[in-house]
Amino acid sequence: MGLPPPTALFLGVLLLHGILKPLWGELVFIPPFIRMSGPLVRASLVGDTEDVTLSLAVLQDKAGLLPVPDCGILHNEIGDWSLTVTPSVDVLEVTVRLKRGLQGCSSNETISFPESPCIVQTLLVSASHNSSCLAHLLIQVEIYANSSLAHNASENVTVIPNQVYQPLGPCPCNLTAGACDVRCCCDQECSSGLIELFRESCFTGVFGGDVTPPFDQLCSVQRAHGVPDWFPFLCVQSSLANSPFLGYFYHGSVSSREHSSSEVYLHTNPKDFSDFGYKQGDPVMTVNKAYFTIPQVSLAGQCMQNAPVAFLQNFDVWCITDLEVYQEPDDIVNAKIKNGAMGGIVTPKVTYEEATNLDKFITSTETLLSNGSAPRNVNVEEHYIFRWNNNTISEINVKIIRAEINAHQKGIMAQRFTVKFLSYNSGNEKETSGNPGYQLGKPVRALNTNGMNVTTLHLWQSAGKGWCRTATFKPILFGENAFSGCLLDVGIDESCTQLRENAAGLFDSLVQATHVAMRGNSDYSDLSDGWLKIIRAERPDTGAEPAVSSANGTCLDVPAQLSIRILFSDAGAVEGVTQQEILGTETRFSSVNWQFQCGLTCEDKTDLFPLSASVHFIKIPAQLPRPLTRFQINFTEYDCNRNEVCWPHLLYPLTQYYQGESYAQCVAKGFLLLSLLMLAVFLSNPWTRICKAWNSATI
Q: 90, 215, 267, 333: which is deepest, by most CB within 10 A?
């Protein structure tokens, strides 16, 4: 019987030593042995870690023997490996990382998992005190060429069929992988015996696998009733492979090859035309011919850290970041941005402020004790103001709000980023929402004639538990219907009158204005410049107690919902752009009867009363629609909006409804068809007979 290999023997000693050491109260690595298959591994050193140093060594297995660990020589980096130590409370977090990539490994891209590993080494992490070894961590490294996080585990792409020609999901009811779904008769994982159990109850329609149902225009479809007489002449002879349902819900495509993390970029070669002036939507460039980027939110809701700033496009976004992976951005003071003129440069002017309420930005998931490490600063808000003059940038002002947190604090941080473009000669005047009409997405301008500083109408923007007392406000944006709400906490000792007053007060805080602006540039100092008074419907009296007694805990006529309706219409056009203006604004309350719910006992308990507010924009046509004619009323079968067959669209390519090609091309093709038709008539048998008769008559 042979002796075990030296690595396995050393591993057994370390495991036995690691199990007994915690019982003695000494230092120990957890775990004492790691089989490493990626570029990074972590372990913990527990025990009395004061004045303990760690070193990394590569063990060379020569002649079947491993060398004796030497703790007198300390190395944090050796060869391609690095050792990082993060102190915590009575624990040292140890991280061993491969510094280089695996580009040097010869790997065939067609083979996802080669048989032989790329790197095979044995690493030893030693904890020592005064050159005396106290604990060891043995790492057996076996890394394959495609096992690194910098590469994909498999380069085989998933081909998604183009649903214009082939259904994307031939069996939508197949929801469970590797198992038979009950009542899903198209599931290939169901045996014939299982299908016989529920064959009479199979799912029907598209969900049941009928992804290419016959459509009504097929000649093979013979409906029992409702088929017009002309159906056999205009029906379609086609196979189900050309079903009009293909691509109706999703346009399939072929997924491209995934790039590795080192290959991810926004644009290969940024196009720089800033030397000739910026146009609206052009990316703002730096002197290094790179985009000036600020974190922004994509259409999918993800936060893009390196999104370019577009000229004359404002935004106000929130990004959610994990504090463990947060990286301090580059100092904006050193940024040099092209101003849009040849050789022109503008440097941002930065001011810093300290955040006052960290609970608004940081949600900590772990309370950390002070371990003597220096705190770090994080940016919770960044506000950028660009001053523009024609097609150039004249000035950039940046205000950064910072917060000081623990160096090892964990949690989620909410960051706000705003960008606003202002004219170079604009002062502190209030921003307009259009010129002259409203622009979609701009705040509805409002005014309070009683002297209050009110500029717009609001809705709630609740967070956390959704309480009204912690909810913030967001402006009502023109043309965007919205709904919001919050929860009002009600004490057991509150009266119904007090509840009504609290609810009414919260609703009044949303609409503190008395007038709204008809146009987007109405002057705040001139009430006659298109300011409309808000129509307020009568709300329940908060002071008068209803005749019905509320002794049973039921409060009557409590305001619960605020409905804001805004009427607007098209008011003309400026340079071809439609201008929209507000015609009127109305607020209306809805009341409910509410009863306090407290369970078995009602001592020192609170209940939650939901409040909601909504805004609805209603467009009024500038001109009344034309009344229906008697023919349109009586003969509805010729109405294109009510029937599938539309006789007025018999010459559809020549009508205004066809948008596939330009009108000139449609007319040209129509004349071409007309010429071919006339040629066919001239060459037809009746026409030749007429020509022969005419020639014979002339002779």
A: 215
Q: Radius of gyration (Cα) for the chain, nearest Å?
A: 37
What CA–CA distance (Å, rounded) separates 118 from 230?
73
Cα separation of the two ends of the chain: 125
3-class DSSP string for 677-692: HHHHHHCCHHHHHHHH
Find out whether 541 and 591 touch, Cβ atoms under 8 Å. no
pLDDT tens digit sequence for 194-234:
888 888 889 888 788 887 777 777 777 766 556 777 777 77
Model pLDDT for residues 596-637, shown as the tens digit of each residue = 777 656 666 778 889 999 999 999 887 777 787 787 777 776
Q: In whole angstroms, give the CA distance from residue 164 to residue 442.
A: 39
What's the pTM value of the predicted model, to 2 decimals? 0.46
Judged against a pLDDT cut of 80, whether residue 258 lies above it is answered with: no
Nearest by Cα to 413 from 332, 318, 294: 318
Q: Which of 501, 310, 489, 505 is nearest to 388 (CA)?
A: 310
Which tokens in the block code for residue 676? 């071919």
Residue 488: how many CA atoms within 13 Å on its side-chain side? 25
Mean pLDDT, all residues of the chain: 77
Q: Of 138, 136, 125, 139, which is closest to residue 26 (Cα–Cα)?
A: 136
Helix (H, G, I), strand (E, B) or coil at 561: strand
Q: Checking phi first, is residue 194 left (phi over 0); if not, alpha (psi -120 to 50) or beta?
A: alpha
> DSSP string spanning 292-346?
-B--EE-TTSPEETTPBPBTT--EEEEEEEETTT--PPPPGGG--EE-SSTT-EE
Task: Dump pLDDT digits (tens) for 473-495.
Answer: 889 999 999 999 998 888 877 88
Question: Under a CB-based contact definition with an 8 Å cutoff, are residues 619 and 569 in contact?
Answer: yes
For residue 348, what are its two tokens? 């941002």
Report, as an integer, the average pLDDT of 136-154. Answer: 62
Backbone angles phi, psi at 139, to 5 degrees: -125, 120
CA 435 to chain centre: 31
Helix (H, G, I), strand (E, B) or coil at 694: helix
Binning pLDDT at 50, 70 and 90, where does residue 369 land? low
Within 13 Å of residue 400, how many CA atoms lie on the same side as its CB? Answer: 18
Return the pLDDT at 155. 41
Distance of alpha carbon 129 from alpha carbon 131, whole angstroms: 5
